[in-house]
């Protein structure tokens, strides 16, 4: 078996796999070259050799850089954990030291979760100069594909769609809270249903047409007047500073925006469901020391974290 490995390895320079990992991470030949301290020409040449090695285009050009092919995504699932093991063997380190490592971790989440988690995460990593956190917008419907494409290291979402090769962990429970500006809309709390229906609303939804509040009201034969809609909770919160309207937010985000913008937070006058926010990742990263550290970091930063 050793002879077989030696024969196969003669066909490939293992440094090419390092270039492959950088291209997957950076989604740009130029940025990958900078990260590897190589010239752009050398990185492009390495990509050419990788294409020949795996008999696949691996990356296609886009307006913003490069995108991996399905074959590249599948290779990344196996190559990146293997590189981590090799790195540990070469450096005689099988532990992750956040105090000395230089690394960017990318999280996939919607902006309501970003509002609740990122301040805590940044406080927790402020004394770690080599750690950088990046966030990409993701929803429960998109985060699994982003994980599979290597675009995010860890997803956070409410009931995320996932497959057999994903792993997940429940983080915290949340629900819904109404927000309004008491200086522009002097209402008593808790809100009555009459007040809720009498005043205009800002709608936050992915399609900008209707949300869970509309579904619940419709089931009771009621409706509300929507003044405007947006796809981002942060944008809606800023509008409350100047408009006499109501808006319904996830409770974890409503708490943050109420404190920052001096808004009133109150329980909705109609029963609304509770839900669980979950972290999700690819199974190949479950035992990776760096990923274990990242998952613990996120768990400790949740509203219920200690």
From TrEMBL:
<protein>
    <recommendedName>
        <fullName>HTH lysR-type domain-containing protein</fullName>
    </recommendedName>
</protein>
<dbReference type="InterPro" id="IPR005119">
    <property type="entry name" value="LysR_subst-bd"/>
</dbReference>
<dbReference type="GO" id="GO:0003700">
    <property type="term" value="F:DNA-binding transcription factor activity"/>
</dbReference>
<keyword id="KW-0805">Transcription regulation</keyword>
<dbReference type="InterPro" id="IPR036388">
    <property type="entry name" value="WH-like_DNA-bd_sf"/>
</dbReference>
<comment type="similarity">
    <text>Belongs to the LysR transcriptional regulatory family.</text>
</comment>
<keyword id="KW-0804">Transcription</keyword>
<feature type="domain" description="HTH lysR-type">
    <location>
        <begin position="13"/>
        <end position="69"/>
    </location>
</feature>
<dbReference type="Pfam" id="PF03466">
    <property type="entry name" value="LysR_substrate"/>
</dbReference>
<keyword id="KW-0238">DNA-binding</keyword>
<dbReference type="InterPro" id="IPR050389">
    <property type="entry name" value="LysR-type_TF"/>
</dbReference>
<dbReference type="GO" id="GO:0003677">
    <property type="term" value="F:DNA binding"/>
</dbReference>
<dbReference type="Pfam" id="PF00126">
    <property type="entry name" value="HTH_1"/>
</dbReference>
<dbReference type="InterPro" id="IPR000847">
    <property type="entry name" value="LysR_HTH_N"/>
</dbReference>
<dbReference type="InterPro" id="IPR036390">
    <property type="entry name" value="WH_DNA-bd_sf"/>
</dbReference>
